[in-house]
Protein: MFS transporter
Organism: Actinocorallia libanotica
Amino acid sequence: MTRTRTSPSRRAALAVLCAGTLMIILDGSIVTVALPAIQRELGFSAAGLTWTINAYLIAFGGLLLLAGRLGDLLGHRRVFVAGLAVFTLASLLCGLARSPEALIAARLLQGAGGALVSAVGLGMVVTLFTEPAERGKALGAYAFTGSAGASLGQVLGGVITDALGWSWVFLINLPIGAAAVFFALRILPGEPGPGLRGGADALGAALVTGGVMAGVYAIVQTDEHGWTSARTAGLAALSLVLLAGFLLRQATAARPLLRLGMLRVRSVWGANLVQMLTLASTFGFQVVITLYFQNVLDYGAYETGLALLPAALAIGVVSLGLSAPLIARFGQRPMLLTGLGMLLALFLLLARLPADGSYLLDVLPALVLAGGFGLALPALTGLGMSGARPEDSGVASGLFNTTQQIGAALGVAVLTTLAATRAETLASHGATAADALTDGFRLAFGIGAGLTATAIALAALVLRAPAVPEPAQEPAREPVACA
């Protein structure tokens, strides 16, 4: 049982889980810096190049919920290790790719491996650390791994691409993945699951995977086809139909993939919605501020990564050093609202950026406020996982990661599209390139402020009472799914 494991072994297990997650997160940002070199060497078209990102996002986002359920049924460690192995193999195939088609296929496989790792990682953290204080510290470390990894990836991407070539942004995963597999097999607890007969729902899995993939695809292809095109509307409609069919299936299936009772817990559905809004604004912020650095302030890839480091450091200080004691003393909801308030202030400051802005005066004060993310995310994670029984921790983790991916994809697509449209309109009316771009970025930051304000209002209204874990009301010894 995880309750009897010693603190050193739990810390070692947390280190392995964070290392595996860090590899997945790093890959998402490290690749973006290498895109120009990939396009030159492999002959990608401008539209085709985006599929090196989109292929990964579609596979990753679409498979998270299914991957989480597989972890509950087959064993979390088994699925975590399998995901690491698939991701590492796919990284090798990416590094060896010599055609656009080969790279895109390998990126799809990478997304599948990343989904297996991410879907069960959070659930394992929650089940390993049962005491509130220890769980708060563990969630803070896990949150820092995700948030800081994105900024670190941009720095490493520039250095590796310049020094070794684009292939090495993928090949660097080989020793990390091999080490993670080695230590995961020796350190992580290996409790077996009930097997596929304990709750496999093939139809439900097909419906939710197809629905999420169609939704993510609809979002990521708006760069090329636009938000109002028949293609986008058709994909969005297909996604809604499939997801509605999934919910109907879960309400009637003898062995559902997702217990709908979990979604009736206010802290769970409220935290997932708040997270979606928060990730939409913060991931959009990362992309838009990067474009401001490079296209307005003329920073290179390496300079851009360094410019973002204060945000990563602020998040690290808060999530690793402050979030756990503050949440233990004041509660998850107050700290969530405080963290979101800091993010709202960040967006309001950036919404006033000038075209000839100073990094120290105009940008750095806002980046320091990014520490609010390190306070909000651990609180959100605790709330979002609060309705999960131990045998459902994988699917709850998959659900939480799914809303993260949908929110992030939606935020990046919306904020960058609105910024580009605004800049093009102003440029057509005679504005200088710097003024037009900056005005577009200011609009994006203003939208980010609106999304964050909506998240604050939702958290204040919905997350009123502390979560009551379902295990106290529904004993986990005889799950209905096995009947």
Summary: Confidence is low (pLDDT under 50) at residues 1-6, 465-483. The radius of gyration is 22 Å.
